[in-house]
Amino acid sequence: MCDIIWCKHKVDGKDCDTINYLDPYYFWNWEGTISCAECGTVYYIYMINGFMYKGPEERPGETADIMPLYADKPYDGYSNYRPATEGRTRPYECMPRSFLTGTAEMLKFSIRNRPMRGWRPQPPSAGLAGQFPFNWDIQKLSPEVWEEYQQKIAAGEVTDW
Amino acid sequence: MAKDPRVTRIEDLPGPKSQGEMEEMKMPYEEYCKGIFDVGNEHSKPTALKGLKWLSCTMYIFTPHSVANLAELGAQVVKIEMPRMGDAMRHTSPFNECYLYPLHDTRPTTGTGLGFTNANPNKYFMTMDYHIPEMREHFYSLVRKFDGLTELYRPGTMDKWQLGYRQLTEINPRFIYVWGGGFGYGPKIFGGSYDILGQAHAGLASITGMHEYMGGHCTKQTNWVIDWQSGNLITCSILAAIHHRRKTGLGTMIEFSQVQVPTRMSGYSFPMYGKFGIVRQRWGNWDTQLSVHGIILCGKSDFPDADNPQDKFCARYVMVSAFQDADFKELCAITGTNNLYEKYKSHNERCEGEAQVEIYTALEKWAEDKTRSEVAKTLQDAGLLAEPVRNDREAYESPHFRERGTVRWLDDPLFGDMLVHCGYSCGHMEKTPRRINWHWRPVGADNKKVYQDWLGIPQSQIQEWYDKVWI
Amino acid sequence: MAEKKDIEINSRADTIGLMDMDVRPYPVTPVVSYDEVKPVYEKRKALEFCEWAEANLKFEKRYSKDESLSHIRVLDIGLWRLGHKFATSLFGEAGAECVSIEPPGGDPLRKLTPFGREEYYLENRDTGEKCGMEFVAETVNTHCVTLDVETEEGQEIFKRMAGISDIVIDGMPPGYMDNLGIGYRQLKEANPKMIYIWVGVNGQWGPWKDKQSKFGQWELAPFGSCADSWVHNTGLAQDLLPRGKGGDPTRSGVWLEDYTAGGQAFLNAAAALYWRDELGNSGQMIEVTGSETLLDMLDFDITWYGFNASIKGRSGGWDPNLNQYAWNPCKDGYMMIGGQTDKLWYNIGFCLERDYHQFGRLIHEDPFLKEVGARNALHALIKVYSVTTRWLRDQCRVEAEAKLLEYQLAAGPVMFIDEVAEFPHFKYRPWMYVQETDYGPLLIASSPSSYQVQAPFRCKWMGRDLGFDNYEIYMKWCGIDQNRVNEFKQKGVM
């Protein structure tokens, strides 16, 4: 039960059965208290080189030093608490922007509002054996995007940088 | 007609010959440099490697990049990919979010991921399945027209397909054959190779990262530095081989191991281990040979209200350099740590481990109520060298990189508005500037050009091969 | 045979000399023999090819082969940094005649030594002159002369030397040589074939060009990598390790941008040589900076910003694009495991499950982790690496590697310098070997370009006393005889 804390605290007569993941770098050598993402039980642990030298010991009444980054429940199909779930998991802030979709982002314009071929599907335009020209005939292939671009220009939204 | 010694011609006299030349000699050096590099007008000048032709039988970053250098310098480079799916690197993208379309007309919902960026600019793209024996003679036709190739297959594979150096040198004795991979001949010859493995295996990881006693760990350079730098060093070998060929008319084979590169770049690490038995360790953001010369954490971010978390939370670091005595004295004066100057008057003294711990702790204490800009400005105003640690957005907005054309927008012929970083600026060249014409092209985008124009294959035959997925 | 000695150690100084290469031989474990390697080749049915490869590419044959750039002459001037020196070393390894100019007091880099410890200086066995290891390691096949270019006579001599050089490498601050009348625009008329390369940190021009402190201190690595976002996105996230204790932007352990600048300097100069010699044109000026050459290696980062305003962040030992593709702590260090496709992904499970049953259950039962693309999600990385490390904490690197390789996984330990030096494959090549130098036997890292059929790169000598080649070079290049050299030395010009 190390590098994970499998919470067996009784909640309404049943085991909590939530796995709190202790991410490897933070906790490799660490001592302190950590809360269960599901039931909030505070556990004391003292980890040395990844081994649970002491704990997990329940510390009722104490405030936890830290929350786990991620937790899930193996008995209900792995419902989970992702990072930054209020009151349950600590936030993960070192992201490339404030939100991530995890799927291909359909974009038609770059950050300076000029057309960019970032959406699918693209209308076919190849010749023999996949030969492509050296230009993107956007007016012919995607006239609606060209239109939108003209509107952006008119609205002064297209910049140099 | 013999030159008349009584006549002095102006062309023979030293010094500037025209008003323009005279101005050139007198203008401030910085202006002169800016003028000769003429950012934005690169395409009006010739390319250095005009006439050189190279085949890129490569995948991922390491070997493609070695050839991309040649393409940026003006060589004609052809990338050979497997039909339909193409280079595996096309299918990687940060957080799965960024793709440009199409990959290929037969895959309308598949794009090329941004992971493919930077390693294949300016290349022509063809497809060929090497396993098909009938394609072999056409590969040979290409070899007769080209100067060399780079490949990355497991050793012996190309040889087995009759496409190895031993076969190609018979067909074209001037051919320069380059193999790039992890290990080369020896016990681990067939080991798969990755940038992360290079960093781990060759010692670079062991000397990068925060100190163990502070709770730090061996740290990976986030970017694929070993792939890129190894690619550069292969290009160096290729160019040297080309010069050798000019002398002798002979091609060659080059075997290049990517995992070796970090050891060559490790400075004093191996000599120190050999002579003194000391195993170099990581030393975080400080320097093992210079003090003060390191990155310190400031109290507050410069952009606490920014939307992007990188700006909001992490714009808090300053690189401070004051290792010469006078600089160190000033640093101590500014930060109210004159006691440290008294204690560590000589450079060698303040370079010692314990001294650095004491000094940087004091500096960070001084900085703990200030923003990054405040720290940098205070030190700069005192005449010291201090610069913020900048992020991608700041590199994009940098007046310096913009002026130098290092960051610039490219109207890619097929994919539209995309940012280029570097390429041009890997080496600013006065007369034969590097350039980027396009980021990449779809899989097989130049099949017709290669098969019809260069190899004389009739269109119906090309179509037949295409339908059979031979190309 | 090892002999017993009684020694008393009261300070670090007393340990010096106990580990010298003639006392403690290298390597500690014997090098694998060809007969032991042969079965590896045979197993993959590539014996014939590998035999040919060894015969034609063998490292040991490098000196018997030709040198590619032996007709090229390189003149190098610079201080403090490794960028211009690495470029010069590359030319030297390729056979060029390289001369490096230092002021009569020497390059300050000669005096740098780890933690300021003078006992780590290397000492020339003939002359007793001391030199820092970093300088020695990056002065390869280079002649060293002294010259004070701030004197008029020095400038005259420099002009004559540049006049007969193919390549001039300038590692001085922006405009320094130009102000002295010996910069590119002054030299190019007398030698239009000259290729002049400036190698620095941020540039000779532009708002952030290389500067000096008000006391004249130079800007050195890693200023370039701080300017171009390299440092910002390297290191562990503050969520994976506390900020201030490792969850910070981290610089490289080596002066990385100097090496990238030096490499591109050689690369672009060699291309310029091609344009000059093969295509019949003139020389030119080239400018190479650490910040820009490193910016080129930022993968797709700036392009990504232009795509959707993302700013790359730190991900420590994990790669954000692939799962599994990371290193994590283990019993005796760090272990890298790679396996991204479904087949390899499940192989990791089969392997780890043998020792830690929960791994298979927690990872392979989880419906979210079944799809390859989904595994790159942040929380997937956190879960997978936490559980993997639970297994790793019980494994030494050697054990872990053996177990993982059984399942054809890419796996490798993070190795420390001594382990790198003893790794069987690296010894076999060899990637580090003992070269007998003027400083005694030194363990040095060999050039990756040493494995070629025709003209491999090689190290002929490493390190050089200050001004060692004054007499030879000044006579050969400038016709200045030894008496005049001595006079110049008296005057401080050399």
Compose a concise summary of this entry:
Chain A is of the alpha+beta class and about 160 residues long.
Structure in words:
The complex is a heterotrimer of chains A (161), B (471) and C (494). In chain A, 12% of the residues lie in helices and 29% in strands. Chain A contains three helices and eleven strands. In chain A, the strands form four sheets. In chain A, strands 1-4-8-9 form a four-stranded antiparallel sheet, with no helix packed on it. In chain A, strands 5-6-7 form a three-stranded antiparallel sheet, with no helix packed on it. A two-stranded antiparallel sheet of chain A has the order 2-3. Chain B folds into three domains: 1-35, no CATH class; 53-263 and 440-467, 3-Layer(aba) Sandwich (Rossmann fold), CATH 3.40.50; 284-397, 2-Layer Sandwich (formyl-coa transferase, domain 3). With 471 residues, chain B is an alpha/beta fold. The model of chain B has no long low-confidence stretch (mean pLDDT 93). Chain C has three domains: 12-54, no CATH class; 73-296 and 464-491, Rossmann fold, CATH 3.40.50.10540; 325-415, formyl-coa transferase, domain 3. Helices cover 35% and strands 13% of the residues of chain C. Chain C is globular. At the B-C interface, helix 2, helix 7, helix 8, strand 8 and helix 9 of B face helix 1, helix 2, helix 4, helix 8 and helix 9 of C. Strand 14 (428-429) of chain B pairs antiparallel with strand 8 of chain C.
Secondary structure elements and their pairing?
The complex is a heterotrimer of chains A (161), B (471) and C (494).
Chain A: E1 4-7, E2 10-11, E3 14-15, E4 18-21, H1 24-27, E5 30-35, E6 42-48, E7 51-58, E8 70-73, E9 79-81, E10 107-109, E11 115-118, H2 138-141, H3 143-154
Antiparallel strand pairs in A: 1-4, 2-3, 4-8, 5-6, 6-7, 8-9, 10-11
Chain B: H1 19-26, H2 29-37, E1 53-57, H3 62-72, E2 76-81, E3 99-100, E4 112-113, E5 124-127, H4 136-145, E6 148-151, H5 157-160, H6 165-171, E7 176-181, H7 195-201, H8 225-248, E8 252-257, H9 261-264, H10 269-276, E9 293-297, H11 309-314, E10 317-321, H12 325-334, H13 338-343, H14 347-351, H15 353-367, H16 372-381, E11 385-388, H17 392-396, H18 399-403, E12 407-412, E13 416-421, E14 428-429, H19 447-454, H20 459-467
Parallel strand pairs in B: 1-2, 1-6, 2-5, 6-7, 7-8
Antiparallel strand pairs in B: 3-4, 9-10, 10-11, 12-13
Chain C: H1 34-43, H2 47-57, E1 73-78, H3 83-93, E2 97-102, E3 122-123, E4 130-131, H4 133-137, E5 142-146, H5 152-163, E6 167-171, H6 176-179, H7 184-187, E7 195-200, H8 223-227, H9 256-277, E8 284-289, H10 290-295, H11 301-308, E9 325-330, E10 333-338, H12 342-353, H13 357-364, H14 378-392, H15 397-406, E11 410-413, H16 417-422, H17 424-428, E12 432-437, E13 440-445, H18 470-478, H19 482-491
Helix pairs in contact in C: 3-9, 12-13, 13-14
